[in-house]
Amino acid sequence: MTAFDALRYADTLLAGLGDQRPPSGGVRLHAPSDPGQDQAAHEALLVGVWSALARPGALATNFRLVESGRHVDRSRWVRSRVGDGEILHTTLVPAYLHSAVERGATLVISHLEALDDRVMLLCEALEYLLYARAWVNCYITAGESSAFDLHSDGHDTLILQLLGRKRWQVDSRTGARSPDLADDSLDRVLTPGMCLSVPRHTAHRVCGTGELTIHLTVGYEPLAELCEESGASRLALRPDRRVGASLRSALTGEVGPTTRIRWASRWPPHIATDDGHVTVTTMGRRIRLDRRLERPVVILGSGGAFTFDTLLAAAGLPAADLRALVAFGARNDFLICEG
Length: 339
Fold this sequence. Notes:
Blueprint: H1 3-16, E1 28-30, H2 39-54, E2 63-67, E3 70-71, E4 78-82, E5 88-92, H3 94-103, E6 106-109, H4 117-130, E7 132-141, E8 156-163, E9 166-170, E10 186-190, E11 195-198, E12 204-208, E13 213-222, H5 231-235, H6 247-252, E14 260-263, E15 270-273, E16 277-282, E17 285-290, H7 294-301, E18 305-307, H8 308-315, H9 319-331, E19 335-338
């Protein structure tokens, strides 16, 4: 999954949930008319899951095994050693892990975005579109019972079903303090490609269906700046940066036809214009550019990823001017240029 695919897929998911960005509108479900439409994205995310299982590295504490509501002692299913340079090497114990999951245990990988770049790109795309801080947890089970009882979370979530089927029962009453679900609550079996929006403090119960099933839970919290007046401009003052490197373009100034370009900030920039200039506030800095560069800046600030040729076709600028802008952005770290 590239940054191109991640933003398109994230936008497809949010559009499928309705006109308003979640969590507006309560519990919502997106079932694509063509389940195979985003098969490549699902497969890329699954590769990220398998990669994390194969190489947990120093982040073994991101893994939890939950059986009958209790955490299984990590010493049973994780092996760790300290190598040269005090580097922690960790591997999972397949035999114990497989039998536990087969019995109905759930393997949880917290902050999967820290373990795989593909998942990180999707997480960043959703953050950019939702103006929120997000993280991704993964849940793997093969039983019919639930490792977690009826519960609610203190943050909003998006559920992405990747493999197999999983039954979700979600209360129709946001914030209800009840030992059971309301009669008109959502009760659906999610299949690969489906996406579910669950607002914070909404009770839900999740059960397997007796087959291997994997889903991602994207937890997110809108940033405090958006609760204030001029929230978007305040958000642009945050220094947070997306993952990605521009070393080649920054050092050599080379920008080729297939160079992939995207905005470096984790949050959208604030763009203002006057008679002769466009002023961009991003990552806590203000950058003053010629007014002629406004269109490519606005295009890049939308959060997408573009090849140089694609951007050139939309920007309405001479190639030399656009190439100079991209090289300047790479050197000054407000654009990420890859490839």
